[in-house]
Amino acid sequence: MSTGTTPDAPGYPAEFAERYRDAGWWQGETFGRMLRERALAHPERIAIVDPAGETRRWTYGELDERADRLGAGLLALGIGKGDRVVVQLPNVAEFFEVVFALFRIGALPVFALPAHRDSEIRHFCAFTEAAAYVIQDVAEGYDYRELASRVRADVPGLKHVLVVGDPGEHTALADVPAEPVPFENGPEPHELAFLQLSGGSTGVPKLIPRTHDDYIYSLRGSNEICRVDEHSVYLCALPAAHNFPLSSPGTLGALYAGARVVLAPRPSPDVAFPLIEREGVTITGLVPPLALVWTEAAAAGTPYDLSSLDVLLVGGAKFSEEAARRVTPALGCTLQQVFGMAEGLVNYTRLDDPEETIVTTQGRPISPDDEIRVVDDEDAELPVGATGHLLTRGPYTIRGYWRAPEHNATAFTADGFYRTGDVVRLTESGHLVVEGRAKDQINRGGEKVAAEEIENHLLAHPSVHDAAVVSMPDTYLGERTCAYVVLREGAEPVKSPALKKFVRERGLAAFKIPDRIEFVAAFPRTGIGKVSKKDLRAAIAAHLAAAT
Ligand code: J2J
Prior knowledge:
- Helix 2 (31-41) crosses helix 4 and helix 3 crosses helix 4 (94-105).
- It contains 17 helices and 27 strands.
- Among the domains are: 24-46 and 58-214, Rossmann fold, CATH 3.40.50.980; 441-547, GMP Synthetase, Chain A, domain 3 (2-Layer Sandwich), CATH 3.30.300.
- The protein is α/β, with parallel strands linked by helices.
- Bound molecules: ligand J2J.
- Ligand J2J binds next to helix 8, strand 16, strand 21 and strand 22.
């Protein structure tokens, strides 16, 4: 029998599960038990530092007790094992209280981002048949309670909205906790722990089912590679729900190690640098545009002492060699490139790799059991050094998305390799270099935008006949989005600002709104009549180059 398989998602075939257990990768841990063990071992040690407002410092004992009480309260509300709960919180301590409460009772957090709006949240709540949706009252000037009211009106099955802060018409999270009860029905290590979001290339984001066993292995492996131990202090500068700051090695890796997590409400140097000095931060992770901003701020001279910082992880999008070379001189820490994906596979440069390797590659896999194939368009394996499609299979890479059998048939090979959509090359030393992308996605400084999703929003406009969204080069973000639009003949003409406004008002994350819209009479076509996005990308790149 395969393990972790549910009617909703394919798990690992039995022979693989056995191999991963025998090898010691899967050690039969769960998140709920893990936190309890840490809390028993060092109850007084600080686990979470939340500097927003008056700084809060939760010990391991306190986090454990809060998770217990909230878990009991959620059970009393009728939320139980296997139920989905959409969690959309900024970087606040309650994120961990909620997530560990859910882990403990075996309910599955669905990790939404603070940037998500009506269309994404409605989809997550409806598609997962969520029992509850957890929000902050107001963050960065946005009132999530109003969003929740609209979503509830559209998704009647959504029974509970739980609010950190002032609940308005909903329920305050602070009113939910109850007396702890023994959780006899907690999840098993091979069962699902949560649903993570895929960057995606399809009309709606796919959900990624991760098990306790597989994810905890990726944390343990990451900790070893990034040298995270109980003395480490991890700064969570990116949105906490992102897979990178969650697990590479991230906040969950830090908690696994018994280390300290410091939450940055925003990732800018004016917020992060004082926190690094004050809290003695040793390690953090950033996407390339932020790494550039930090490098420049430090090189220009900062009054803050950053000398505690040992390691800066940079990943989520390609970090240029030139930018990579500037990190250590400016920030005085070791650069570690990370090329990962919420579906599983994570690659790191090693801290003792030669500098050339650190600045020119995106690292090598965590596990000796991570299988890597670089193939051509026909799935034929290419020799080492050739550039091709990256396929992967291993002890923490999913075998299928959640409730997506049709998509799984093409996103995975028959023998269970995940088609990453990344175009890579393997070096002689076994390191991967990301050369490009075959998936129909824009990587906007680490934020992933699925072209089809945005095209669908554009097509909803009555004047739009056809739409094709492509990436355009950008010195800061690496890529931005450019939407090519063909207007409907005879329809009311629409201009770029009005069309952007139309898309924004449909309710979606701000980073998905096209940066630029180009109106054309027709799209270039490939030999077989498909829209040639390659030609569109070349056209906008040439146009931008000519303009500068
Ligand atoms: C080029 N492209 C990269 C890199 C990710 C750690 C780090 C990142 C993610 C992440 C993650 C890249 N160079 N260094 O989950 O645990 C692009 C690839 C990849 C996609 C995955 C982690 N690092 N990418 O970014 O699920 O295209 O995960 O397939 O958001 O980001 O995106 P996501």
